[in-house]
Every structure is written in structure tokens, then in C-alpha cells.
## 1
Amino acid sequence: MAARFIGAHMPTGKGLDHALRAGREIGCTAVQVFTSSPQQWKARQLSDEQIARFRAAREETELGPVFSHDSYLVNLCAPDAEVREKSVASLIGELRRCSALGLAGAVSHVGAHLGQGEDTGRRLAAENILRVLGETPDDAMLWMETTAGQGSALHWRFEHLAETLELCGGHRRIGVCLDTAHVFAAGYDVATPGGLEAVLEEFDRVIGLERLRAVHCNDSKKALGSRVDRHEHLGQGLIGEECFRALVNHPALESVPIVVETPEAETMHARNVRFLLDLRADG
Ligand SMILES: [Zn+2]
Ligand SMILES: [Zn+2]
């Protein structure tokens, strides 16, 4: 069976409820949003009215999984304790908003070790992930994203994610979000024929496919192994169409939401979502 839930990261400038309707209009059956400004520490408080409007839009649009992406500022393993504390508070706010809105999970980049080394980075990150989970509702899920490994970003190898998971005792509220552009830039060759299948097999062996809760579907402007994170429109980058065809027709991804985070959302998301929908074998 082909993927049932395909969509996009939708802009929320006109409101969270509007993002869902706009997503539906361009053919999305899954949507990712920011529940707060991704460039600011201070999060907006959601009013009861905003939550009610969002839930109404959710029902009206009949979307499948809707989930969020955390603030870009979050660094759970920052060397500066003050930044770590702000990050923990920010992520707690994110998961509380997810629960209030009824979202399936929050995707997080987790952090960058900034020279402390990856082991120290993962240890600090795991410690703080457990604090966040301990202070948030039981229905709020945290999905760690595979990164391109740009700079000192954690989690650019599947083994790294597996280790953080283990440091968290395999906590049931932790999932993983795989980003096609990130894994490619990190050195996983999803561009060759059969490449995506082999990479998903490796994911299954190292992490376990049952942890895969979402896919970010982006083409890459940068080369295999470059460790540089630059998204490109689908089919116009170095990954190419075959990977995306394999992705939306992979039996293990039938109920995993697949969303694009490509540039020029307002004008190009419709095209990129349509591109994915058209690659499905059963339309
Ligand atoms: Zn992503
Ligand atoms: Zn990226």
C-alpha cells in the first residue's frame, strides 16, 4: 500500500487553524506546524479560543496526523547551562501545546554539542529529554530528527539516535523523524536505485522502524556526505525522483506521515505535495 498521509510544513502566519485549511486545499492529508515562533525563546500562550478554532479546523479538514516542529533555538546539550535551561523550558512548552492541541508529536533537532564532543552531547541531551518528558502530559510525544550533522549537530548517524534512545531507557514517548535531505547529506545514499530501501533496512536494524513516526521529504542542494543542510524542491536536487517514488510506495510507511519542508511554501508547496501524490502507484 502507498503512503496514506502526505503533506507539508504549513505556514501559521494567518493562524494555526488557517494552516490546516491551507494544507487541505493543496491536497495534504498530514500537516506539520510551528506552534510558536521558531526564532524566539518566548512562546506565545495559546488561548482557549485558538485551541477550539484549531480543533474545529482539524475536524473540518479531516486531516490525518498533525504534528509540530520545535524552536530552532533549542539546544538540550548547550555548554552554557542557562541556554540548556531555556531549551528545556521551551521544549516543555512545546509538548504542552502539542497535548492541548491534540497533536501527534513534536519533531526536535535536540541540539549541537558545540565542541564538547558527541558523547557528552548525547548524555546531556538524554538527561534533559527525560526532564522534559517528566514534566509534560503523557500523550505528548517527542520525535528526534535525523540531522545532516552540520556543525556539531547531534544525531547524524542512526547509531547516535539509538544511543540517545538507550540513554533514555527506550522511553515509549520518544520517536524518530527521518529527513531525506539530512540523511543524504550525512552520507546515507538514498539517491541510488534501491538506496532508500537499504537505508530504511539499516534504520530498522539500528533503531527499529517502530520508532519511525514521521518523514521529512526534501530534496538536497548539497552532495552526499557534505554534512550541509540545504533543502531543494523535490526532483530538482541531488536526491531525485526515484527515492521519493520508493518512499511513498514503501509498505512500512503506509501510515507514517510524509511532509515536505521545501523552500517557498506559499507558492511551491502545492507543487511539491502534488509531486509526491503523483508518485504513488495507486494514485
Ligand atoms: Zn526536517
Ligand atoms: Zn534541514
Note: The mean pLDDT is 97.
## 2
Amino acid sequence: MTGISIRSANIDDAQKIADFHVRVWRHTYQDLAPAEAFAVLNEKYRGEKWKEKLSSNDASQIVLIAEIGRRMVGIGAAGGPSESIFGDRGEIKFLYVDPDFKRRGIGRQLLARLASHLREMNYQGAALSVVKGNDLAIAFYEALNGRQAGEYIDPGPVWRSKNVVFAWDDVASLVP
Ligand SMILES: CC(C)(COP(=O)(O)OP(=O)(O)OC[C@H]1O[C@@H](n2cnc3c(N)ncnc32)[C@H](O)[C@@H]1OP(=O)(O)O)[C@@H](O)C(=O)NCCC(=O)NCCS
């Protein structure tokens, strides 16, 4: 699709990313997440987390924003593995596309850029976790040749969700 640009985020984007994250997260998990998670994972909570992430000096971390004009239509983040189940692969930590802009290649493009960054950081593979029951995301990762590589329960504390792990042993396979 034409008109999409992808750029690195900076600290000034933190709250806008958080607001977008909350909106798409609620849309995605309305039938899956417990009410407590909906209450706790609000704009303020996410805002603090994104400010923290975007203030970090950790060069392995990347946060990307996809835009059409000045409208945010997607976000993605990647970095070093946060759970032992990811092994020594780089981790795709967040990937969210505006529901009004799905199936236009934005997710694929963001994932390619995140994978390219992980490759530059010398990770051979990539992995991520997706909540069991998030069937659309699972279909997306399967379409991009992700391999199911196990399951784990999120340590919480907000939502101890059951997750499926997807892995790509060659991160370069995600980079066109
Ligand atoms: C999952 C998500 C990132 C996909 O982004 P997207 O921009 O809609 O996906 P793309 O247009 O890049 O799709 C690439 C390919 O994946 C497959 N795919 C994507 N969405 C699919 C769906 N709902 N059903 C089946 N296949 C799908 C298709 O093969 C598609 O190619 P095609 O459109 O040429 O057939 C997006 O739907 C999203 O943000 N969902 C909500 C948040 C979420 O669940 N994030 C993941 C958390 S782990």
C-alpha cells in the first residue's frame, strides 16, 4: 500500500503511542481479557511504560511508528528476549495496527523493519508470544511462516494470560 511511512519513535511520542496501544488492545482483547486488565491497562499505565521504554539507552530496543500522513496507523517494538522460552532470539514485543487499516500490509512492513533491526543487533532468530485465542494475529504469524515453538503463561501481575510462542529461526526470512 502506498502512503505508509515508518519511523523510529522518540520520547515525545510516548503518550500518543500509549493511547493508540490502549485503543487497539481493547479492541483486540474485548472478548479475551479479564475486566481487571481492562481497568488497569489504561492510558496512564501504558503512558508510564512507554515513557520508560523510550527513555532507555538500551540500543537493542527499537520502537517504530507507522503513519499515513500524520495519522498513527501502527506501532511495533522489538529488543532482546524477556523470557527464557524465546531462547537467544530477538523478541518482537509489540505489534499493533489500527483496526481501520488492517490487511493493507502495515503489519507485514512493521514486522520486516523490526526483524531488520534484530538482524543488525546480531540476533539470528526472532520470537514473540501471542495470547491464545487471538486467532487473527495467529493467522497473521502463520501466514508469515512463523513456527509454533511452545506455550507459556505471562508472569503477570495484571493478566496471567496463556500464550503461544512463534519463532523464526532465520530472522532474515522476515526481511524482504
Ligand atoms: C495482527 C496484525 C498486526 C496484522 O496486521 P495487518 O496490517 O492487518 O496485516 P497485513 O496486512 O500485513 O497481513 C499480512 C498477511 O497476513 C495474513 N493475515 C493478516 N491478517 C489476517 C487475518 N485476519 N486472517 C487471516 N490472515 C491474515 C494474510 O496472509 C496477509 O496477507 P494478505 O492480506 O495479502 O492476504 C493486526 O491485525 C493487529 O494489529 N491486530 C490487533 C493487535 C494484535 O493482535 N497484535 C498482535 C499481538 S501479538
Note: The helical segments are 14-29, 35-40, 43-55, 106-120, 135-143.
